[in-house]
Amino acid sequence: MPGIRVLILEDQPFQRLVAVSALRNAEIGQIYEAADGDQALAALKESGGVDVAICDLHMRGMDGLTFLHHASQSGLLHSVILSSDLDPVLRQATASMILSLGLEFLGDLGKPFSLGRAKALLKRYRRPEPHAAMPTESPNPLSVSDIVRGLNNGEFEAYYQPKVDLGSGQLRGAEVLARWNHPQLGILPPARFLSIMEANELIGRLFSALLSQGIALQRQLTQLSESVELAFNLHVSQLASVELVKQVSQSLEQFHLPANGLLFEVTESGLILAPASSLETLLRLRLLGCGLAMDDFGAGYSSLERLCEFPFSQIKLDASFVRKLDIQPRSRAIIRSAVTLAEALGLSLVVEGVETQEQAQLLSSLGCTTAQGFLFARPMPAKHFVSYCLDQKTIQLDPL
């Protein structure tokens, strides 16, 4: 926090004096002040930009909302702390607007000014890493022929991200994610190749590779007296395939594994675009004994309708609700309602995107029991996941 540049935007002279004096005496860094939006924009230009603006909303002349809009376009402001006595619902909406403008929202200071609270919020600021200008074209662009070659050579590898019990940390399952072990470019995430696969109808081949690896891993874990549910993502194009259920059934029979060890995740947006035959495909997977999860629950507009139409056994709550826990208290009410809804429908609920211990504790207090995110583990290759499973077993057997 030393050396941080802070702009105080406050139209009340006494409150502005209190805030500026307190921060300067605390030696926070370089402090600037403005009585309205026009003065604030001028201060940004004269200073060459600031790290954080502590911003009131109501004032004469250019108000705080208009200032934030112009400041976001100027590129001279990085983060915002609100300082307002607005209704909490309006402040939450303002926080969402700040994020939509591409600015970082550090929190709500409220009124009157509190130095302790201000220092705590300023500590959240993280100076952006310097980076080189982005090239006009992506480096090493990937071609369809390169992807087909990679599929033929078995370069696409299944990675596994654990789902864990929030209370005990016990492993509850894992999501299977694709990585490309490219011979020249190293490990590539799906963002580098998935859209090309979708456009060239190669998703089915990728799924086959991941399913084969996942089933083989399940067989290995079974031999080690471990049982782990694996979740595979289904693309909308696969839901029209009559061969999908047959492929899954044959794979399970080949390795003598139960169908309840597999779960398939489908996004709500995918279901909206899915053909009518998709319901039959999902029904057949459920009749086979596999689980079915609605992924990114709450991110679309018809989640409840889809829950009524399709035979889901699990809900995966979209990570956006977890990210907004600090800035939107309403997110807590939505999460609590999702817990109640899942219980009423007899579905399991998995919360995605958990990254901090504070989030995990709050989710647990809201009734959530199972979560997935970087706090617990990042996606890992099969050999590391086997070690993870065995380590979990050892921890559970150790006496307290």
Automatic annotation (TrEMBL):
Q: Which SMART domains match?
A: EAL (SM00052), REC (SM00448)
- Residues annotated as domain EAL: 140-393
Task: Record the organism.
Answer: Pseudomonas donghuensis
Keyword Cell cycle found: no
Which residue intervals define the domain Response regulatory in the entry? 5-126
Q: What is this protein called?
A: EAL domain-containing response regulator
Does the keyword Phosphoprotein feature in the UniProt annotation? yes
The alphabetized UniProt keywords are: Phosphoprotein
